[in-house]
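To assess whether the prediction recovers the assembly geometry, we first specified each molecular entity separately, as shown.
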Amino acid sequence: MLKTTTRHTPDGPVLDVHGDLDFHTVPDFRKTLEGVSLLRGQRLVLNLAGLRFCDSSGITAFLVARNLAATAGAEVALTAVPEPTFRVLRLVGLDQVFPIEPAERAGADSA
Amino acid sequence: MSPREPAPPPQDAGSLAEQAAAVAPLLEDSAEDLYENAPCGYLSTLMNGTLAKVNGTLLSWLGYRREELVGRRRFADLLTIGGKLYHETHFAPLLQMQGEVHGIAMELKAADGARLPVLVTSVVKTDAAGEPLLIRTTVTDARDRRAYEQELLRARRAAEEAHREAERSREHLHEVVAVLQRSLLPPSLPLVPGLETAAHYHTASPDHLGGDFYDLFSLGGGRWAFCLGDVCGKGPEAAAVTSLARHTLRAAAMNDPDPEAVLHTLNSVLYERYTGDDPRYCTVVLGLLEAAGLRDTGFDITLAGGGHPPALLLRDDGTARYVPTPGGVLIGILPRSSVTVVRTRLEPGDTLVLYTDGLTEARTPAGRYGDEQLLAHVSALAPSGAEPTVKALTDLLESFGNGLDDDTAILALGVPARAHENPTSSPC
Amino acid sequence: MDIRRRNNVSVIGREDGPALVLAHGFGCDQNLWRLVAPALAEEFRVVLFDYVGAGGSDLSAWDPERYSTLDGYAEDVLDVCRELGLRDAVFVGHSVSAMAGVVASAREPGRFGRLVLLTPSPRYIDDDGYRGGFSKEDIDELLESLDANYLGWSGVMAPVIMGAPDRPELGEELTNAFCRTDPDIARVFARTTFLSDSRDDLAGVAVPTLVVECAEDVIAPREVGAYVHAAIPGSRLVTLDATGHCPQLSAPEATVEAIRSFLRDGER
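The predicted structure of the complete assembly is given in tokenized form:
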């Protein structure tokens, strides 16, 4: 199960991800990503505070987001990354590829 | 009821008889008429099947006159030839053994040759002593029902045929998948002097091509390259990337065996080929083996990793540890790859194990198997040669059962322990 | 393999009597012998069994390839004989089983000292100069009848039926049980029975043989009985005053008497 909601902030959209990112849910997640409008210079934040599980399909989805943002001249950041997912990101070196922000910042945006 | 007629008084004994008399003409005027004109066929035969009595309904269905049948023909004569065979092999024996048979589907032949699908029920009538006297049979018109049943039968046969066809297609698919899968792996590992090697490959499903790969090949001059990796995704698209990755690694290593340079080449190939909303990338560990001395002295190893789980090193002294390649990033997602290189040495009795994350991501009752448990497991094995280590890990994979839902590749390279260190192995 | 269980073998009658094997034909199972078995048991050690696929046999042992030729049925007969260690026994085969017995007898000489062929036919389909009584199309009609009548068969019932033909608690459930067969198995047996041609095997019968026919039998008409009698050297032919293809049911006393008298004559 996966649920996503999109919020807008002055810096760009924030996508709150709740549930699992796996083989079954990622196709829908990719459609959601494609529907997000990004302007040049904006930052798309994927708020992973509600992420329960993420496998390699989820990792691919993050890379899709990154590629989509790059096409629009924007960038992607991850925030509130749960520990297990963070370990995977570090293992595959994506901690060097994505700006990873602490949870407080996303909370401040939503306030 | 007409309003002018007085309503019969209730609870009057005489009125019940009056009512019965009033409705009698509306019902059967005689049992004989009911027999003759019942909405089903009646017939009686002697025990040898000779027709003794047939009702008017059946005669009209079949277009026979009574005198053409009674005393002249047997019940079986009214059946088609195939029906006679069935009658003799099933119906008659059952009737003789059970005394009755219910609702058997048959076809009667009418005088004009037309066929009438019917359901036949027969009962043997016995005398007071229990001796069989005759056979009473009812025949019901079953044309609609038979048409319906034949429709069901046809649908069933079509479904069975479709099922067989699907099974054939599936078998064919499995063959194709198996052949392609073999093409992604070396048919056998080459012999490397002074090195023991073993590998295992598990595909999650015979329907799908796995995305894991490994290889071991000579670079000439006493140098060898080995690799093990995992392409993202499953199925034919992933297999195409796997094939591309394996052959790129081979070609690049032949050109310049420096592991960092090899992974840079692979990264460029994948990055240029797959971009946009269809990123294709892989994790990989690539290594270079060089004999450290003339004989039995082990190998120097240069390892480069791109986002892959760390290799395991089982030492001759009974310890085991990870050989991390930190900082390496997935191959194929950045224009310029970030690769880390580490060097280590494989001494006699040491074994290096490469694996994909199917092993550590397997689901167990206590959650994902994880790298700590894996390290604990192989620590208990050490020291262990390539073959027994792969065997132990294969057993571990099997123990996961349905918890193992991803492809898994394992490659182990070990230097045989020095024989003199184990006095019990001395022959005499 | 447990042959006794596989073929639902039962042995009744005089333990010291000569062995007599009763083999049922196409359609039903060993219950077809129920009216003659008790009388024969007074004198003989009577062996009853079901071919694999019929009655209370082990359906999991059924193999479409094996049971697509008469040899497969002959093998069942020999398996039962080997299991019981029978030699020089009397084989009584009904209908298609008569020919299975001819095949078995030729394959392992010594197993059977005598053959009783009850309403046999070596070929059901007409051929040049031979009248079996049927055409290929007639057999297709029979297969249609099999398809139209499952006789209460259902896949769910199979495990219950197997090995438990006489469980009284099943009562009403077991109507038609004697002839109830998996439809796929019945089709194979029907084809094997009605499409095979074993005329050439008859001349090779090397033991005293009794051919029993009925006066009126649509499946094995009298000219077929005469053919079998003529083709088996030295055979004896008895025509029962009975109707139908199953004299063991329609004329049990006469059937028993024909078998007894044939075997008595052999003792002299």
